[in-house]
Amino acid sequence: MAYTPGNPGTKLDENFENDLLAIADTKLVLGNWYAECVMNGRSLPDFAAILGMCTANYGHTRAIYQYLAAHGHDYDHLERGRGPEEMCSANLLDEAPSGWEDFIVSTWLTELSTWMMASGFLNHEDRAVAGIAKKIGQETYFHLKYSQGWFQIIGEGKKQTSLFQKAYAHRFPLALQWFGPARGKDTVHDAGIRDVPLKKLRDAFIKEAAGAEKLLGADLTQEKSIKFADDWRGDARRFGAMPDGLFEVVRFKDAELAH
User: Fold this and answer.
1) Which CATH superfamily is domain 14-258 in?
2) Which of 35, 110, 226, 256 is the one with CA 20 to 30 A from 210?
3) pLDDT on residue 6
């Protein structure tokens, strides 16, 4: 059955599904990052904020999985039936943070990149999709503010600033890579499903990411020439399979507990 906006049961465009899964799976991993790292917070407000961001990202993932389930997918399979080679999370989160500064950089870049991608669907003709995108934007706004507050605190220390700069130089290319090749195909926009071109979203991400310099009070390196090797999975927006160690963290350990 051809896709009809707002009509559950109709089949979605495959590339559109891929983009939604890339957002959802990345947010699933991001939620787990927050859950795993919450006790590394520097104060009680950190604990509260990180737990809040954790549950918000899980909520975004669940909403997208539910939407896909309404259009022919098996929810149980999406949530806990896929292997590491089927996951579509960003490579940005494959490697655990090396410290607090790396945690702040990595989570901020992930929040920013997933929001940029979701923002392309704010005017989607299906109100369910537009509603999910709007909700992501509303909640991500506060997540970004949390990170930006830490940029200023980190910028007060020479050692902390250096660690931030190192983490940013390493993580930024991985975040930018998620948008695909700069001159790659943009089938979702070409099909009229996303009204904002991917190039425009990519450029907006670069501009917003550069804004960290002012808050940190130090220069940051933005490497924009990304090389895409043979194992680049365009449908998943990542290289290769999710690392086994990370998969063990995000997968459901006992499916019976989910019922």
Assistant:
1) Ferritin, core subunit, four-helix bundle (1.20.1260.10)
2) 35
3) 56
